[in-house]
Protein: GH16 domain-containing protein
Organism: Medicago truncatula
Amino acid sequence: MAIFYPFKNNGVFFMLLLWIVVSSVWGRPATFNQDFHVTWSEPHIKQIDQGRTIQLTLDQGSGCGFASKVKYLFGRVSMKIKLVPGDSAGTVTAFYMNSDTDSVRDELDFEFLGNRTGQPYTVQTNIYAHGKGDREQRVNLWFDPSADFHTYSILWNHHHIVFYVDEVPIRVYKNNEAKGIPYPKMQAMGVFSTLWGS
């Protein structure tokens, strides 16, 4: 399928495509209207292919975001994401799970940091447990994520959290509560995706 990406080199306007594949949690492919809702800036979210593909837009006025209608305690979620080509410095695209609580949130993040043309693309993972983050890790991707869709997955269970890129584990966070290290296991989390200017 050929996709056209309108893009201005000043990094102020671009579109991102997400192919929603959260079948491991639901046991079936997800569709936008059935499984998700817009959390902010509905005009910046366009459904394609009967809601199986979502296009997010960032411009000078706003970014946008959406979330699952239900929360889950453990499971595996995946999204196929194709980033915009070219200079995307100053933007952040995120796919994450979040308990959506203000004081002691739990969160598992994939954040795609914008880049300058010709530079490696970097994905950052982060884990919040009981309201505390500061567990960022960055990985330079070994491919151009704007050339095609790639699958990004989060596996979360009682024993560990694993972040995957195209089925390759890029980070494993073990449950070390016995050593006093917080681990997110008490709060169900929703599935979110956002696009914004940093």
User: Anything to note?
Assistant: The chain has two helices and 14 strands. The first strand starts at residue 14 and ends at 21.
